[in-house]
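User: My collaborator sent over this chain with a note saying "see what the structure looks like." That's all I know about it. Can you take a look?
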Amino acid sequence: MRLLRLLKMLKLLRLMRVVRLFRELRMMLMPIVQSMRTLFWAACLLAIVLYFFAIVFLQATAKAIVDDAQQTDAYARLDTSTLDSLRRNWGSVPLAMDSLFKAITGGTEWENLANPLSSLGVWYYLLFISYMAFLSLAVLNVLTGSVDTQCSLV
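Assistant: Without extra context I'll predict from the sequence alone. Here is the result:
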């Protein structure tokens, strides 16, 4: 019985030798694991900002679609490609948040998203430009800097 226990101990020692080989891997993974809390709060902040702007652009889109349906003058109506683009990109909260996320991460050209908003009014276009500037220059740089600082402290 003691001999079996001794053999189990030898297996554990062999495992410890293998674990020592992954020392560099552990050194790289530890900052990532320790910055998870910061990453979680950064994602929450980003989701809140995306949600706020998505609600604004969704409200503008819904108002434009309702107003366009009530228009009797053919010249005052929006063209079908603009309406389709508004519905496709800004038709619901998840679609609007997805469009906003794609705009700041390069998943889609932000000009393709902003042009239909400009047909709703210049203020919505300027608000979208402000969103892009705010997220690209302020929020994402601050988040990148704070995660970088968190990793360098470890």
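A starting point for your reply to your collaborator: Residues 36-70 form the longest helix (35 residues).
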